[in-house]
Amino acid sequence: MRRISSLLSILLLGGALVLTGCDSTGVSGDDGEDDAPLTMTRVENLPGDPDTTSGGGYPQGHNQFAFFSLRDSSVVLHSDEQARTDSASTMWDLAFRGTDIIVNGGPNGPGQGAAYVAENAFQEVSEVTPDSLTRHAVEDWYNYNENGNHIVRPTPGHTIVVRTADGESYAKLRILSYYEGAPENPAESGAESRYYTFEYVLQDDGTRFE
């Protein structure tokens, strides 16, 4: 099982906290030697078009996506920005709006991005399954209203596998929370929704993660 062995950097990007660490397990190359360790990146409180109203009820944002680059670990475009030129570029890999997640490819962008949801826990996903990649929206990553409390929770044991917009790298990603501050019990905390916390590993040399 992988673990983060050291914290390398902390970046605050428009309200989203990005933590980057070094994975302690290397990736074996064809010669049997261990390559440099992969990097585990944690993104906290990425705003995915959060509520702009002052009342309760269904959240109403700007109805625009927030665009994120897995390659640069950075927000390319926030949902409240008016200029949307970068949304038509290959600078971003995933975009978030409410529970909607799209890739930069097919009907959603000019890139070669694609994704699928593996029905395996994060640490169990060791390699990309190319035939499973699709350029449609990422689905089945969450459960809703399981206990009648209208809460969105990431589906346990599911991992999102992504091909980046340039078609040259792959990532495996697990969403940890859909609520600001990633509270253990969102219903009791009253935390705002549409704030993503997730972790991912990026592989830019092949399709294996271990």
From TrEMBL:
The record ties this protein, via InterPro entries, to: HmuY
Mark the transmembrane ranges: none
The record lists the organism as Salinibacter ruber
Q: Under which name does UniProt file this protein?
A: HmuY protein
What keywords would UniProt list here?
A: Signal
Q: Does the keyword Signal apply?
A: yes
Coiled-coil residues: none
Q: Which superkingdom does the taxonomy of this entry point to?
A: Bacteria
Q: Does the keyword Signal apply?
A: yes
Range of residues in the leader sequence: 1-21
In this chain, the stretch annotated as Disordered covers: 26-59
